[in-house]
Design goal:
By secondary structure, the chain is an alpha/beta fold. It has 15 helices and 16 strands. The chain has helices at about 5-20, 25-30, 55-65, 80-90, 90-95, 110-115, 165-180, 230-235, 265-275, 280-300, 300-335, 370, 400-405, 420-425, 490-505, and strands spanning about 30-40, 65-70, 70-75, 120-125, 140-145, 155, 160, 190-195, 345-350, 375-380, 390, 395, 435-440, 450-455, 455-460, 470-475. Helix 3 (about 55-65) packs across helix 11 and helix 7 (about 165-180) packs parallel to helix 11. About 45% of the residues are buried. Bound molecules: 2-deoxy-6-O-sulfo-2-(sulfoamino)-alpha-D-glucopyranose and calcium ion. The site of 2-deoxy-6-O-sulfo-2-(sulfoamino)-alpha-D-glucopyranose has 11 residues, from loops.
Length: about 525
């Protein structure tokens, strides 16, 4: 064998070993994962999706350098259920968290556990909201329950701690500190979960003047009369009638009317503000004095008052998002400065969408688009071309399979989602043509319901509190104002959708797998 042939054989052998080895060298090359999730961040308030309300240049970086999912949905539009779905890749009825009241059983399989068992260094920082302590993380430092915005408490690896500062900035700093001090011999999974922009939208003190006097346009269905939609008539989640003068608008009027749904609000409002130190409180009071004075000048003019409520809600909501966007910028910069950009998959999402005045609502829960849809942006320079987009119907059950797939591990058969990698790799994507949704809680006058959404139609069945079906043609009625369920012209379509809905219920093993009624 001459020297040339020996050299070729040697190099081929090196390539073969490096491709098949499961040894530590290969583990080192596995991608890092930065999973960023905010709380209640509607896609309408991310400029990559809609630039009418706010500019979010840092979150947009992920879209510009990666892929934007335009039809990303949740399975159950509420905080704890969504988090349990993301961790397990399973619907609520299988992971046990159907509402915010249940305790997540940490003994069950989750994607962070699988990554940790296979050589990843894992961390969970920020809002957790699953009642049991996080399992599957080498480091965790989470807010108790919903957490507080100002000078918040944390539970750091089981120990109660209080940090001085603003929650969004603290979660960012803790995340960056963990990244700096991590064991660099291992790939990492960091789940950075922001509390913001969750109600009651308390902004960083430095951002209190942003958006002052903005004139946000009212959504065209702000004055929705809920004709033909019984569930909407029952809810107590409207900007006009169900927000609290203190909690939501920050006017300290204890004699003003409070809707019964907010009986807890006065005490809770002062508890949250009392977390500010005296100097901070002065800044706060000074800034909100203006709103208070304005309130007394417009409160007796209904139309002006409605607009004022809407503006006050959006101002504070968007101010909170400014801090979230800054946070994203900081962690992206960290990756860049530390040469981690290429081999790190970065995900930005929210635990669900949020109504920003559409149908007159705030909050989530209902299967209408603004709450069922959620932002989803993924950057992974090794595999994804910048400025990609997709209209395929994805769901938060897909997150766990995607991250396991990208990390190079098999997706367990009992996970119910599909790896999104297929979408950006574009190899012959055969993708689902419908998604299944099931919401269970009755709080705030919401009625439990399940339903199906296809590319064009949405069929919803409210089965508890009230019994009613709704059908929407999203092509002709994107704002879901006309319930077509009783229209004889749609009889065939309804039958077809009900069959599909039955199929999904049994495919996903929902024990309530018959169509009630
Ligand atoms: C709190 C909020 C509600 C919100 C639920 C659930 N009220 O009760 O507005 O719907 O949490 O939100 S607050 O004024 O006390 O903040 S979730 O995102 O955790 O599911
Ligand atoms: Ca939420």
């Amino acid at each position: 064998m001459n020297l040339k042939v020996s050299l070729i054989i040697f190099f081929l052998a090196v390539i073969l070993v490096s491709c098949t080895s499961e040894g530590p060298n290969n583990v080192e090359k596995r991608p890092n994962i930065l999973f960023i999730m905010s709380d209640d961040h509607g896609y309408q308030a991310i400029s990559a999706y809609n630039s009418d309300l706010i500019q979010t240049p840092n979150i947009d970086r992920i879209a510009n350098e990666g892929i934007k999912f335009n039809k990303a949905f949740v399975t159950n539009s509420l905080c704890a259920p969504s988090r349990a779905v993301i961790l397990t890749g399973k619907f609520s009825h299988l992971n046990g968290v159907t509402g915010n009241g249940q305790i997540f059983d940490g003994k069950q399989q989750t994607f962070p556990k699988i990554l940790q068992q296979n050589g990843y260094q894992t961390a969970m920082i920020g809002k957790w909201h699953l009642k049991s302590h996080p399992v599957g993380f080498d480091y965790w430092n989470v807010l108790p329950g919903q957490g507080d915005y100002y000078n918040p408490g944390f539970i750091k690896m089981g120990m109660d701690t209080i940090y001085k500062g603003y929650v969004t900035e603290l979660i960012t700093k803790l995340s960056k500190d963990w990244l700096k001090n991590r064991d660099t011999s291992k790939p990492f999974l960091l789940m950075m979960h922001q509390k913001a922009p969750h109600r009651n939208w308390l902004p960083a003190l430095k951002n209190l003047e942003l958006f002052d006097d903005s004139d946000f346009p009212l959504p065209e269905n702000f004055y929705d009369d809920y004709e033909g939609r019984e569930a909407l008539k029952k809810q107590m989640l409207t900007v006009r009638n169900h927000m609290d003068i203190r909690m939501d608008f920050k006017v300290p009027c204890d004699t003003c009317d409070t809707a019964s749904v907010n009986s807890w609000a006065p005490e809770e409002y002062w508890r949250r503000l009392d977390r500010l130190l005296p100097g901070e409180r002065q800044i706060w009071d000074k800034n909100y004095k203006k709103e208070e004075l304005e309130f007394y000048t417009i409160k007796d003019d209904e139309a002006k008052f409605d607009r004022w409520k809407f503006r006050r809600f959006l101002e504070d909501y968007l101010r909170c998002i400014v801090s979230v966007d800054e946070s994203v910028g900081q962690v992206l910069d960290f990756l860049k400065e530390n040469n981690l950009e290429k081999n790190t998959i970065v995900i930005y999402t929210s635990d669900q969408g949020f109504y920003l005045g559409e149908h007159g609502l705030f909050d989530k829960r209902f299967m209408y688009e603004e709450a069922m849809r959620t932002p989803l942006l993924i950057r992974f320079p090794n595999e994804i071309k910048g400025k990609s987009q997709t209209e395929l119907l994805t769901q938060n059950i897909d997150i766990a399979p995607t991250l396991l797939d990208v990390a190079g591990f098999p997706v367990p058969d009992d996970m119910q989602g599909t790896s999104l990698r297929k979408i950006w790799k574009k190899n012959n994507v055969k993708w689902r043509d419908a998604v299944y949704y099931h919401y269970y809680e009755k709080g705030f006058g919401a009625s439990p319901h399940y339903g199906i959404r296809t590319k064009r139609y949405k069929l919803i069945h409210f089965y508890d509190v009230i019994d009613a079906w709704e059908l929407y043609d999203l092509k002709t009625d994107p704002h879901e104002m006309h319930n077509l369920y009783s229209d004889p012209a749609y009889e065939k379509k309804i039958k077809e959708l009900k069959n599909k809905l039955m199929d999904l219920k049994s495919r996903y093993k929902d024990p309530q797998n018959d169509l009630i009624n």
